[in-house]
Amino acid sequence: MKKINIAKFVNPRFSFLFKNSTLYSDVILSGGRASTKSSAVSMWLLTYFLTDANANVAVFRKVFGTVRGSVYQQIVWAINQLGLESRFKLQKSPLQIIDKLTGTGFYFYGVDDPMKLKSAKIAKGYVRWLWFEETAEFKDWAEIDTVRLTYTREKLPNGYKVQTIYSFNPPRNPYAWVNGWAEEQKTVEGWKVDHSTYLDDKRGFLSQQYLDDIERYKANDNEYYRWQFLGEAVGLGNNVYNMDMFHPITELFEDDPLITVAYSLDGGHAQSATTVLLFGITAKRKVILLDTMYYSPAGKSHKLAPSQLSKRVHDFIQQQLKDTRWGRLPIEKRTIDSAEAALRNQYINDYDIAWHRVAKKTKQIMIDNVHSLLAEGRFYYLDVENNQIFIEQHRNYRYDEKTLDTDDPKVIKEDDHTADAFQYMVLDNASLLGLKL
């Protein structure tokens, strides 16, 4: 095999992985977005995998559905960089990358249910390396350790020990479990904790366009920049959103036309409000709140039934179709809370149209998704009467102060219907909006 200079694929920041890796049983790599830590991990794992014909690598994400598009592709990238494409068999079901010469390989798992992994079997050899990517997605250390102990309990030959890598971008909440856990491990023997940022890219892997984008984030919302790109746990504050990032406009952009629209619905019945938000997306992927439908049953002796709400929602959409500014544009999606069954079923029955149920994530993740859009300076709203309820609710959207100093902060669930609907839209249209969630 020809000699390959691994160093040209890895930033010097991570040279300790290759020079002193056997010193550590566990390595924690935290850092900001674009710090190139995941690329370094994949190259390190592949390099050492090639030194042991009986060793395997097990790679984990919290949710299996995220594995193929992230860690799996990351290992494929490393294989391609070293020109070893012909040596490996890429399997999609089950998700594995097998070395044709040795029969060992890389095994990929989701930890949706940690107990299921206790029965996971490797075809040949032993597992010598573990990689938990996006460690912050996991519920707690116990969830990870349940998996880890499955592999560390087996005695390996030649005095080898299982080595584990944990990589993640720190949550903005300083009380998130993973932030405190990483800090505690700094004094544990055999553990290495490292924090990196995009500023450590000495090899010039990042494009100038990307660096310019980072500078735009820095100028628009410095706190977001510090969290996302410097990896600082900047804290949550009381207000959930920076309202300076909600830009009012009175007219649509002449030089950036709308190309599609999207609806998002948060439903309520006897006790809570129902809202439908209409968003326009421009050619340059600006997002504009065009109109809002809002019905609250508060103080009303006769509450609208699902059949009546269905008609009101339909009438709202029909009215939008008459608007000469956006009525003829394609509807990208009609997004609805996955838990809203009654109104969705009623709408199907009435109009033979199924709203798309959003695959909700944790509340903080959905909030962070909206932060990503806002920090890019791409969100606008038509400053009209119907949209004032949206602005009012976002201005008053706050964390419960009693939960701020915990690893599970809660927003105050009061008059938050437009906030929920906004989060659903961003999550459900992330690809269209160019967001990497």
From TrEMBL:
Residues 266-426 form the Phage terminase large subunit C-terminal domain. Gene3D superfamilies: 3.30.420.280, P-loop containing nucleotide triphosphate hydrolases (3.40.50.300). Residues 28-232 form the Phage terminase large subunit N-terminal domain. InterPro entries: P-loop_NTPase, Phage_terminase_lsu, Terminase_L_C, Terminase_L_N, Viral_DNA_packaging_terminase. It comes from the Bacteria. NCBIfam families: phage_term_2 (TIGR01547). This is PBSX family phage terminase large subunit.
